[in-house]
Amino acid sequence: MIPLALFLGGSVIAIPVVTGIAEGVQEQKKQNEEAANETRMIKFNIYVHCEDEHELADDIDEGIIVLRHNKVWVVPRDIEARKPIPPKQGLTPELHAFAGFFIQYPDDERCPVERGLVSTISDDPPVLNWIYVNNDTYALAYGNRTASITHMVGAWDWTDDERYIMLDGFEGFIAVDEGIDPSTEWGKEGLRWAVYFDNDDDGLKKKKGKRRAFEIGLERVCQSAEEQLKQLEDADKKMQVKTRGGLSTQFTAPGAEARMKKKEAA
């Protein structure tokens, strides 16, 4: 056995194993640096900006991202209260605004590993789910590891100024008019604008059909320590978070290092 080189014609020829080892070391270094970057685990909400001049764009601009029916939506935002304004009153449960952070996606088959994006999907208990892009429709969705692993789960990131959200190095997010269809659960609730990712960089021509769509920017707005503390108090200061699909977390006091544990679903 010759582990790192082959002797041919009296000369030594290096084989790709050496390069592979070097790349592996660099990737491990990158992962270590990522794990140490606490700023990526600061919890944030997502506000929506739309520069289109069409009158319907007013329903989207200055909106906020919410999670409902395993889909990602844009709804108007109460500017002062910094909360979503429900399309219809009396929704049960109330609309849940995105409240999440970046963290490595737990999949040993992905090389290199990808940075994922998680959000709470409820306040009590504060269950976490992965945000991903459906491979078939390009719609943003949320779910546990089992639901997300075969789809586009990353790499999520922020722009150079750490202000806007990117996926795969691209701010290609589009709000698509799903229509207020009373035959759907979201239609009954008045939800209209679903978020998609322009994975083909063609304006979703192959995916949106005749539906109206607008390009949008997703702004990362960090939550204050007071907001995070209030969420903890509202959840009776529960330290262990109920899990869905192998993702669990432990919240610490604001300002302390967040710690995540990832395990396979039972």
UniProtKB/TrEMBL annotation:
Residues 215-242 form a coiled coil. The keyword Signal applies. Keywords: Coiled coil, Signal. It comes from Amniculicola lignicola CBS 123094. This is Uncharacterized protein. Residues 1-20 form the signal peptide. The keyword Signal applies. The lineage of its organism: Eukaryota, Fungi, Dikarya, Ascomycota, Pezizomycotina. Residues 243-266 are annotated as: Disordered.
